[in-house]
């Protein structure tokens, strides 16, 4: 078996490719079921964000498993394999482990050190557990990744002042328009990214903010998080009127097709001299044809790279500190992985000794007499179990901790011979 990750990110693929392969949460279950149906995939988990789609899998045959994942991606994205391959990366075993830990720590993010990705890794793990697509190996790997992400944020300063995609979008708007306080701003969508947009806009002095969302309840919940700010709320039927009356519009919805197009914008009279559209959604909410309109400036997530770059240098030293911590976490996972080959022998030895304990306990109790045995059986049972556990504990700890593969193999063979263990028959 091997751990593999096949995917693409903002580093390997433009937004027009990433949006084709975006898998919304509502479709994660069917995607996981589809992938588990392939003959060479035993476990699988999917990270799908605006900047990456990564499929982690435990494969019984590395080459065939990777091919199955690649075929799956080509099918869901309707992209020819020869085109798709140029955007994909494939990492195996320790490289795959290290990559997930880096992702969780924010070292692979567009915004170095951003904290939102850790929550997305946690959600990936939760969904994989919910839909029974992971077992021992990926469960342990994702838990190790979450531990690593927390350590990096706790033991380094990489998260201090680290910006999210939302704050990078606001920084871009602020760079283009020095005084945001005088501008009418609309946000289409009322999810987590929109909440962050409001937070960063208020920090930049914005005073006129409108939220447009299909669900008024969700929009009201967002507005309630900012009780001292007069946020205006509109339904989708008022979207174009709100856009037309705004100076800057941020879009952050789960729509799979563009909701703002050239045709829609030409049908309304834009109140401002110019309209700025900043789309932080993948798939994109704003069609590329809006750039044909003279009074419209349009930006998407890929345009945020320049903004992010300006903030990256101060975090690079902190990232180097984080790298050292991650190597410790990679080694911890590798040590656990290597210890798995001791499990059959340990289980067989424990089972054999437990059988001996039960047999000898039964003999002892029968000699003690019925009245004594019934009165004291629980105590004697606990004592014998304790003796067995204490005898086995230290050898088992040392066996699992043995890092030299050949030395550990010799120890296992010695145990099997000395205790006449039939490991191959029962645990193969």
From TrEMBL:
Site (Important for activity): 99
Lineage top rank: taxon: Bacteria
One Pfam family hit: Shikimate_DH
Record-annotated Glutamyl-tRNA reductase N-terminal domain positions: 6-156
Keyword Transcription (UniProt): no
Active-site residues per Swiss-Prot or TrEMBL entry: 50
GO BP terms: chlorophyll biosynthetic process; protoporphyrinogen IX biosynthetic process
Record-listed NADP(+) binding positions: 189-194
Molecular-function annotations in GO: glutamyl-tRNA reductase activity; NADP binding
Catalytic reactions on record: (S)-4-amino-5-oxopentanoate + tRNA(Glu) + NADP(+) = L-glutamyl-tRNA(Glu) + NADPH + H(+)
Pathway: Porphyrin-containing compound metabolism; protoporphyrin-IX biosynthesis; 5-aminolevulinate from L-glutamyl-tRNA(Glu): step 1/2
Chain positions recorded as substrate binding sites: 49-52, 109, 114-116, 120
Domain Tetrapyrrole biosynthesis glutamyl-tRNA reductase dimerisation: 321-421
Oligomer and partners: Homodimer.
Free-text function comment from the UniProt entry: Catalyzes the NADPH-dependent reduction of glutamyl-tRNA(Glu) to glutamate 1-semialdehyde (GSA).
UniProt domain comment: Possesses an unusual extended V-shaped dimeric structure with each monomer consisting of three distinct domains arranged along a curved 'spinal' alpha-helix. The N-terminal catalytic domain specifically recognizes the glutamate moiety of the substrate. The second domain is the NADPH-binding domain, and the third C-terminal domain is responsible for dimerization.
Family per record: Belongs to the glutamyl-tRNA reductase family.
Note: During catalysis, the active site Cys acts as a nucleophile attacking the alpha-carbonyl group of tRNA-bound glutamate with the formation of a thioester intermediate between enzyme and glutamate, and the concomitant release of tRNA(Glu). The thioester intermediate is finally reduced by direct hydride transfer from NADPH, to form the product GSA.
Name of the protein: Glutamyl-tRNA reductase
């Amino acid at each position: 078996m091997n751990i593999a990750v096949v995917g693409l990110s903002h580093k390997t693929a433009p937004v027009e490719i990433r949006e084709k392969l975006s898998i919304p949460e509502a479709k994660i279950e069917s995607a996981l079921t589809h992938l588990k149906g392939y003959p060479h995939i035993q476990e699988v988990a999917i990270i799908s964000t605006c900047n990456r789609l990564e499929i982690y899998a435990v494969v019984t045959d590395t080459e065939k498993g990777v091919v199955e994942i690649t075929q799956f991606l080509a099918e869901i994205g309707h992209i020819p394999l020869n085109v798709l391959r140029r955007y994909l990366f494939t990492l195996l075993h320790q490289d795959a482990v290290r990559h997930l830990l880096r992702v969780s720590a924010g070292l692979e993010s567009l915004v170095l050190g951003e904290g939102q990705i850790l929550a997305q890794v946690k959600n990936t793990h939760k969904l994989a557990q919910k839909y029974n697509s992971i077992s021992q190996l990926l469960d342990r790997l994702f838990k190790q990744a979450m531990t690593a992400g927390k350590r990096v944020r706790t033991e380094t300063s990489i998260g201090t002042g680290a910006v999210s995609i939302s704050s990078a979008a606001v920084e871009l708007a602020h760079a283009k328009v020095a005084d945001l306080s005088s501008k009418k701003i609309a946000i289409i969508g009322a999810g987590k990214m929109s909440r962050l947009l409001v937070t960063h806009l208020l920090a930049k002095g914005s005073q006129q903010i409108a939220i447009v969302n299909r669900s008024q309840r969700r929009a009201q919940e967002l507005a309630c998080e900012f009780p001292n700010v007069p946020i205006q709320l509109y339904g989708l039927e008022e979207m174009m009127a709100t856009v037309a009356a705004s100076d800057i519009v941020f879009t952050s919805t789960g729509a799979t097709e563009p909701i703002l197009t050239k045709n829609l914008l030409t049908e309304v009279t834009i109140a401002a001299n110019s309209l700025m559209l900043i789309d932080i959604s993948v798939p994109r909410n704003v069609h590329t044809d809006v750039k044909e309109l003279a009074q419209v400036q349009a930006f998407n997530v890929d345009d945020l790279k320049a903004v992010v770059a300006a903030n990256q240098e101060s975090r690079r030293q902190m990232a180097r500190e984080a790298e050292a911590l991650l190597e410790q976490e990679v080694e911890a996972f590798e040590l656990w992985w290597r210890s798995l080959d001791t499990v059959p022998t340990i289980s067989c030895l424990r089972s054999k000794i437990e059988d001996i304990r039960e047999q000898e306990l039964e003999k002892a109790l029968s000699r003690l007499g019925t009245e004594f045995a019934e009165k004291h059986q629980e105590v004697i049972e606990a004592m014998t179990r304790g003796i067995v556990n204490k005898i086995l504990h230290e050898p088992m700890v040392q066996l699992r901790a043995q890092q030299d593969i050949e030395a550990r193999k010799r120890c296992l063979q010695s145990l099997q011979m000395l205790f006449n263990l039939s490991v191959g028959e029962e645990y193969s």
